[in-house]
Amino acid sequence: MTRVLTIARRDLMALFVSPAGWVVAALFVLLSSAFGFVIPVLAGQAATMDGVFGVITSFLLPVLIPVITMRVFAEERSEGTLELLLTSPVRDWEVAAGKWLGAFTFYLLLLATTLVYVVLLAVYVPGHLASLDLGLIASTYIGLLLAGGAATAIGALASSLTQNQIVAFFLALAILLFTWYAGTLLGFFTQPPASQLFQYSGGENRFQSFSLGLVTLKDTVYFLSLGIAALFLTTRLLDSRRWR
Asked: Where are the alpha helices (DSSP H) in the chain?
């Protein structure tokens, strides 16, 4: 576990000193502030967390996470340092878990910045605390933790497939968009029981219960299974490279 944390800390620090990490953080804060509060207020609408959560599910998860994860393995491969890491006394699963944990921690820090908006709604909006559904907000955050963990694992898997960071970005983007939206689209154009299977496999549908205030076992298992499967495949790919 110590080796996992060491790798995670190394990758997290690399994100803080890289331009990509700061660009992702700036874009996320700007968009969540603008679409979460400023634009709704200027339009005369009530300020809620819906806009902030919308930015996370439509932009942070499918688009910005690939930016965060595109370098985790691709950069190591392009610089020739991955081979050094794999020949060190560290297991393949520790490498995969450590690099996933570093990227996921950065995602958590971005997610934590949105708690400021919850505080603003509770403190500065007159009479809003009584109408603020903290249970709904909490369940949505749980869903975002699960979905973000799975998305980060998929991004790490995509990065392990290539040494080109741009290719890793577009590969992760394509997989995440397909995983999030394809189930809904395919379910709409097919008939039962195929439509029910497609709808269940879509990440957007699985996240919907969390956004409605429900933390269900089947949806939790879906995102956990997705993340574990991606990390398992990443570990197998690292194992294949070790013996080349």
From this structure: 2-17, 19-33, 39-42, 50-55, 65-69, 74-79, 81-87, 92-113, 115-124, 128-131, 134-160, 165-177, 183-189, 194-201, 203-211, 217-242
Q: Cα dist. 1→6, 115, 188, 237 in Å?
A: 9, 29, 44, 21
pLDDT 10s digits, 77-126: 887 777 777 777 788 888 999 999 999 999 999 999 999 888 887 776 65
Q: Please state at what angle helix 134-160 crosses helix 92-113, rounded to 10 degrees.
A: 140
The DSSP output letter for 35 is I
What separation, in Å, do the N-terminal and C-terminal C-alpha atoms of the chain show? 26
Residue where the block lists tokens 């973000």:
148
pLDDT in tens, 25-60: 998 988 888 877 777 777 767 667 888 888 888 888
CA 98 to chain centroid, in Å, comes to 16
The Cα 227–Cα 148 span in angstroms is 9
Long-range contacts: 230-233, Cβ < 8 Å, 24+?
230/150, 230/153, 230/154, 230/156, 230/157, 231/93, 231/96, 231/97, 231/100, 231/153, 231/156, 231/157, 233/157
**Is 37 in contact with 51 (CB distance < 8 Å)?**
yes
Query: Which tokens is 242 given?
Result: 């070790």
pTM recorded for the entire structure: 0.89
Domain boundaries, the chain: 2-242
Identity of the residue numbered 27: L
